[in-house]
Amino acid sequence: MHATRTYLCSNCTACLKLGGGSMPGMRNLVIVQPYVPKYRLSFFSRLIGELEHSNIRCRIAAAMPSGHQANRMDAASADWLIPIRHRLLHLGHRTVTLGGAAESWAGADGVIVGHLGSSFDTYRAIVDARWHRNFRVGLWGHIKSYVSDSNPVDAMLERWQLRQADHVFAYSSGGSAYAATAGVSPKRLTTVMNTVDTRSLAWARESLREAEVSNFMSRHGLRRGRTLGFIGGLDESKRISFLAATLDQLWTTDPDIRLVVGGSGAQSNLLDASVSRGQTIRLGYAGPADQALIGRSASALIMPGRIGLIAVDALVLKIPILTTNWRYHSAESEYLVEGVSRFTSENDVESFATLVHGFMRHKSMTTPDQSCQSWKYPTIDDMVANFSTGVLRMFDEK
Known about the structure:
- By secondary structure, the chain is α/β, with parallel strands linked by helices.
- The protein has 13 helices and 17 strands.
- Strand 6 (88-91) and strand 7 form a beta hairpin.
- It starts with a strand and ends with a helix.
């Protein structure tokens, strides 16, 4: 009979029973996360179910969010969650994770940890895999440095981590290409195609009636071909000050353009001037129904700051993103096709305002082919299938 093994998690208030009630030969996997945001619930729930079909019991070890992550108020809970407590060391603008997750994978057959040069848990996992021949370690994340400049020491350490791991799970093809240059062989590499569960948004878009769109536009004083949208958090990563300066310039060159903002955040007040002159309409937090209305009303989404998972939403809505060639767009920006689902200017306010003005005067007057391959996007089913295939390869190849 398969014995039940009980291990305390690092905060000593909860425990994980690895193998309890499982079939003989079932392997146990732990995935370590800084925290689990609500948008990840669907992915992890589906992944856990998919891996069970392959006789793999998966659980997610995560701490409570801290700092700017805590401000998002989007931490989730689930019965498959192992609570841990990360020990953090703040050094100026840098934060080093001093560990705290290792006890969560005690007795497991494998662990997948973040690809991060400043995480002690990642090094501990690599050491555990070297000491225990049948223990596997995977790394996942952007892999390539997208959203910030890489510290040279961190970059060196992270490339070493890639070479030591049994398997690497990259968010996108760009991350996989970078891993290959660091010496990761194709059989140890999985491109996850990071995404979110888009079913609610897709349903909201498809079920939206024209009368609802007309009522929405009338209520907010919007006109076809003269409306832009913004969906996302109003925070520093989205460069709201840059957006506000662009709106100031557009007010002098194209004063009949309106911006509908679906989102909230600490920098919402930077849009106060444009709101007061009637140029911007703030909806606050926008769920799928409001996002669908924005997508049907606007000619494009405007995003001078970081393009991340908004790329997936834009593809679902079949609406292009107007952006800049800023260096810190995330991996998901690779899903967009320049000239179809993305239009890019130089990284200054004047160039961006010129792009917006030109697009609204010319491009928005034509109807794009929304059925072409350029509007394809990765689904949550794709992501689960890719990730689970990578887990099987991690366990079965050595």
